[in-house]
Amino acid sequence: MSDTKKFLYVNRKAPYGTIYALESLEVVLIGAAFEQDVALAFLDDGVFQLTKGQDTAGIGVKNFSPTFRALGDYDVNKLYVERESLEERGLTEDDLQEIMYEDEDDDWAEKPSIRIVSRAEMAEIMAEQDVILSF
Amino acid sequence: MAYEVNGQVVEHDEEGYITNLSDWSRELAEEIAKTENIEMTDEHWEVVNFLRDYYEEYQIAPAVRVLIKAIKKSMGPEKGNNKYMYELFPYGPAKQACKIAGLPKPTGCV
């Protein structure tokens, strides 16, 4: 399809406390219906959105982190996480939940959606996009 | 606006989706199905239960395209197709089945 554009959703905020993270995810899910080339970027406090073992019982809001694992069903399987942002917060890849997708072109093999990239690589990824939406 | 089941009142929004997800019961599902002109069969329940499991796992009511793909994966192509699903739920498999399953309206569904 010639009119496919590359969309990047940039997530910079912690998952709770503001509505940005949840709204971004909802826009991604809605936008997935338009069959564009969609990727997500997580940097700054946005990396906390993907941490595992989130428990929101104490703050009385829904824990929406399991929904990231549904993204593969929506053909969204590029989740770029900036290594420097993780390191600055004392996090490593092991602190993030496992998010897999099934590769249609590879006999439905399960593959990880999360790709850890450097700040320099993130800049290149951003430069390649047609549309960038920042949350 | 509310449904009434066994003398219990269950609130719903203007489109018939229940407000409090924990109010759901099988009896309520039958009641909601009636207002949608659907007679619940084992095949209907299979889809409704599938949706409830999906929501439990991912905290999301899937879009119809995703639902049909997921059904196809778990129950096979004879059920995971548009024709079968629209025969069960003529006004939209995701929309109607989610309502009966006591889930929110699917994200992206207008």
Structural class of chain B: mainly alpha
- How much helix is in the residues of chain A? 10-25%
User: What's the oligomerization state?
Assistant: heterodimer
Structural shape of chain B = globular
In CATH, the topology of chain A is named Hypothetical Protein Ychn, Chain: A
Rg of chain A:
15 Å
Please render the helix and strand layout as text.
The complex is a heterodimer of chains A (135) and B (110).
Chain A (H helix, E strand, L loop, with lengths): L5 E6 L8 H12 L5 E6 L36 E4 H6 L11 E4 L5 E4 L1 E4 L1 H9 L3 E4 L1
Parallel strand pairs in A: 1-2, 1-7, 2-3, 3-6
Antiparallel strand pairs in A: 4-5
Chain B lengths: L1 E4 L2 E4 L14 H10 L6 H17 L5 H12 L6 H7 L4 H8 L10
Antiparallel strand pairs in B: 1-2
3D structure, described in words:
The complex is a heterodimer of chains A (135) and B (110). With 135 residues, chain A is α/β, with parallel strands linked by helices. Chain A has helices at 20-31, 83-88, 119-127; strands at residues 6-11, 37-42, 79-82, 100-103, 109-112, 114-117, 131-134. The longest helix of chain A is centred in the first third of the chain and has 12 residues, at 20-31. The mean pLDDT of chain A is 94. Chain B has 110 residues and is mainly alpha-helical. Chain B is built from five helices and two strands. Chain B has helices spanning 26-35, 42-58, 64-75, 82-88, 93-100, and strands at residues 2-5, 8-11. Chain B has a two-stranded antiparallel ribbon with strand order 1-2. The longest helix of chain B has 17 residues, at 42-58. Chain B is globular and about 40 Å long. At the A-B interface, α1 of A face α3 of B.
